[in-house]
């Protein structure tokens, strides 16, 4: 067994058994998430765990309706058709016994300070804002969550597509916290099969540059 096998256990799972996830396991997975690094130790994340099957089903219906609504705003039938075709992927969470909503909170940066003060050109502000450390914190927590879940035998799927219905989803689950918005979500449950594999990865030489 390799030293880093816990990493390679993670894959995107979209089909789940109708099996409960014990509260102790959920707490362990969430504890792993909040041990992620965060800039300035702000820990600007909040997790909403949805286990109510009716709400999960309604959440999927909300995404379907929002998808249809937004598709009509696209400029061509080709784009409308492509976007409508994504709705099946954006609602796979409806098959899971648990859905975890991951919210991102405020994270002050030099870019936000300069923007509020109107003290720099927009192109400079945009360049400074591009690394988006506040969202990087959320991504680090999300990856910890997914790896912990996989190591405990659960399946997950990192999803951002459904966030176009963020306002409606938040209203459904009753979550409000000043400055926080839905950044990502994942279904969580026991995988329905163990046949899935990770897609091929680009070779290291293509994505890594060594400077010695």
TrEMBL record:
It comes from the Bacteria. Gene3D superfamilies: NADH Oxidase (3.40.109.10). Residues 7-189 form the Nitroreductase domain. GO terms for molecular function: oxidoreductase activity. Pfam families: Nitroreductase (PF00881). This is Nitroreductase. It comes from Thermosinus carboxydivorans Nor1.
